[in-house]
Amino acid sequence: MLEIHQLHKSYPIGDSSLHVLKGIDLTVESGEMVAIMGSSGSGKSTLLNIIGMLDEADSGEYILDGLPIKDLTEKKAAVYRNKFLGFIFQSFNLINYKNALENVALPLYYQGMKRKERQELAMFHLEKVGLADWAQHLPKELSGGQNQRVAIARALAANPKLLLADEPTGALDTKTSYEIMEFIQQLNDEGKTILMVTHEEDIANMCKRIVRLRDGVIMEDKKVQQERVSAYV
Amino acid sequence: MFDLDLWREIFQSINKNRTRSLLSGFTVAFAILLFAILFGIANGLKNTFKEAFGDDATNSIFINSGRTTKASKGLQAGRRIQFKNEDYDYIKETYNNKVEFITGRVYKNINASFRNEQNNYSVRAVHPDHQFLEKTKIKEGRYINQNDLNNATKVVVIGRLVEEDLFLRTSALGKYINLSGIPYKVVGVFTDDGGDNEERLIYMPITTAQQVYGNNDYIDQINLTYNPELNYDQALAFSSSLVRKLKERFLVASSDQRAIRVRNLAADSKKVNQFNLALTSIILIIGFGTLIAGIVGISNIMIFIVKERTKEIGIRKALGASPRSIVSIILIESILITAIAGYVGLLIGMGVLEVVGPKLEAYFIKDPAVSTSLVISATITLIIAGGIAGYFPAKRASKIKPIVALRDD
């Protein structure tokens, strides 16, 4: 599904530069649910952003579903993001003047889908996250958990190969976090490959594999016994 | 290609971000409004000015006579110079190719009456050319013609206000007006842009006046216009040649300033033209100034808008928006707002000029107006400026890495 070899990334800071990723090797199979952990500054978000084609690596190989991702033009990156990837952000990143349904339908708009079709599909995904009744509400009229579910529905709408979540529970209280995680586990059960950045141990333990980063290198990469959210509640 | 979805996106963005849309719309509308009003007022000033000097043909030359102030060729100072028909003929023949229109004038003040109404008016006895020199406009009937002149017929052409005064609300045409006891047939009624005084005049054939009021062939004044093809220097040369010839003819010392006076409007009209040029420059400066202020305003707002939308742009890009679609959505939105707002400003501006305009005549502003095409070009300029001002930040924003745009701050 996803192969990364010797990935390097540094950011210029004034005259010097900060070496954030120092040769990452990572392989993720289809259907996995991986948590990337590490303290802040460990490079975990940078790694996720490169995987999400939101940022570019300085050197190294990145192959997504057999497709080498390199020398991306803006246009090409946009197409790949749209076709292959779904994003879930800590701060939801919904467009504040669009209602839930319109937000979910937006990736479909960029796929060039017809209005009627995309609204039906968006509605289908909203139903899936249990927010069909809130379709016409604006983000500010929804709770944090509801907004994150809208964001998940949006990430799913384009039927991506890979779901990327950057601290998906970071802005939520524990109860809501677990609800969201339960939902993400369900998606994984249905076969979605999920990559998630978190710094919370309990959230990481709900995944099937934990990759620990420190100072730009992988310290530890182990499979874990997934803890089902349902067991907590 | 008409992309309905794109337009839906744009209208939603405009509609849901009202403050932003109104702000930029207001800037543009206000700039266009100011542009229209300032331009209109400046044009009004120009109109007033034009009217003040526009009554007589600008290529006119007026020739008057007076008393000599210097002895010359054995004749004493203080001699009165009197033009006669032969002098009129002399000028007409000598300068045949340089004179466009020429007329003599005899002035008389008379008491005119029709039935019970009576009043005092100035009579100008003239040649038919006078109509063109004075830019007299015939409202009804006709002007004095050559036939009247040849036969010294007792006909008059009266001003619009004379008709109003004496004939009340009836038409004067064809009726007989009594001028100091002698009946004259009214063959025409005229109007004149020169104001009320010009419309309280009575014109009659010069030969009639010479016959009736003295039985002589005296002429008080000779007015002419020179061939409009003469340039400024040629026109001045023409009038000085005229002065010289007339002084010789009447045996007047060449240094005598009073005996024969020639006033050439070309000299005046040069000043008028210079003033007009200055006024036009001021108008242009005002117009461009307003426009530049508008451009700066809309540019600032566009930069602000793009900044405000950075996060939205990041989200859209993460979801698969191409850079082109980002630029077009921002640009079309701004162009749409500018165009609509510009049109609103144009309508308000023209409306204000229409309503307030007539009340400004007391402040030397007459018919303040601005041509629609000018305001539309101004609006288009603003739209283009807004487009350019929006394009660069939008282009830059479309190139920002989504990760930068999405950074929480």
List descriptors.
heterodimer, A: 233 residues, alpha/beta, Rossmann fold, four-stranded antiparallel beta sheet, 8 helices, 10 strands, 36% helix, globular, B: 409 residues, alpha+beta, six-stranded mixed barrel, two-stranded antiparallel sheet, 12 strands, elongated
Overview of the structural elements:
The complex is a heterodimer of chains A (233) and B (409). With 233 residues, chain A is of the alpha/beta class. Chain A is built from eight helices and ten strands. In chain A, strand 4 and strand 5 (67-68) form a beta hairpin. Chain A is globular, with a radius of gyration of 18 Å. The mean pLDDT of chain A is 89. Chain B has 409 residues and is α+β, with helices and mostly antiparallel strands. In chain B, strands 3-4-9-6-8-7 form a six-stranded mixed β-barrel. A two-stranded antiparallel ribbon of chain B has the order 2-10. In chain B, helix 2 (18-53) runs antiparallel to helix 9 and helix 2 (18-53) packs antiparallel against helix 12. Classes of the chains: A alpha/beta (233), B alpha+beta (409). The interface between A and B is medium-sized, with 30 and 29 residues.
